Amino acid sequence: MASLIHRSGPVSRYGTAAGTGALAVLLLVGICGSPAYTGWAVTLTDPESAGAFYARLLAWPAWRLDADGQAGGLFAADVRAVLLVVLAVALLYLLPAAQVARVPGPVSQFFSGWAAYVLAGGLAAVLAALLGPAPSLLGALQDASTGAGYGFLTGWIIGIASLGGRA
Length: 167
Fold this sequence. Notes:
Layout: H1 17-32, H2 35-43, H3 50-58, H4 73-94, H5 97-100, H6 106-131, H7 137-162
């Protein structure tokens, strides 16, 4: 029976870089996209400061608990946040930067996590615009720039979280 158990090395108590990045995505979208946070960021921050701009930017993948009369129902209201999480997690696992990078280790983990979030933000925005209640190509392109900008300015958080795991 013992011969059936095979270990290829010491077991790490830390998760993979993609796994820790995925956890950070869930927390970032779950907390900063929540109705409580988005309400606070919009109403209680000074629109003329950089800190307030960043607080409102963090609320971009807003999700709701009810559709508030939006056409398409609750799914249409939350499609951007759902797509952002799904695409970011998929890209974190698919981008093989740590395995093929010329600079192995933390540098590639950081940039791989950051790049995954930039791509996920842009793709989620495009797909949400095209799947939403009033799809248009112009709206999808405009939203792609907003989503990629969100990913660029917040993806460093996912990149840092990816440093917490093994390659």
